[in-house]
Amino acid sequence: MNQKINTLFAVGALGASLALSACQKSARQQQEEATEARRELNETRQEAQKDIAEAQRRVREAEAEVRAAPPAARADAVLAPNRDEYLKNHRDELAELDRKVASLEADAAKASGKAKAELDAKVKRLKEQRAAVGRQLDSAATVTGAAWSSFTANLDKAMDDFEGAVEKAVK
Questions:
Q1: How far is it, in rounded angstroms, from Cα 59 to Cα 1?
Q2: What's this model's pTM, rounded to 2 decimal places?
Q3: CB neighbour list of residue 146: distance below 8 Å, 6 or more residues apart
């Protein structure tokens, strides 16, 4: 019986020894994995710091270019997004007015006599006015920052006048 107890004890000790060895190996693997994760994190952090430094360098260069540019060019750079939206809105408005003039022109084609002559004259005047507004709108590309304010005031007035003339002719 003593021998059975000794055998059981030996088997238990061997099992505990193997379990302890497995735990140590597992702990060692975990430590190696943690070390590898830290190394990868440090590499990623260094890459991010390089990217940030590069972005900051590009910003400094762009700011230097803006400071070196003449004042009108700086104003143009600031106005560009607003300018594009402003011009798009006016082009859209002109397209709508063009549809109304086309409808009036179709009415003139169906009319006869004095009514036709009056409508033809209205359409002719509207087309001339539209051409002038179109030329003014097309000249926007050449307007610099300093002149932009007066340009928009003149274009707004021309658009309002044209819109009023179209609305009056359509009635």
A1: 85
A2: 0.53
A3: 71, 72, 75
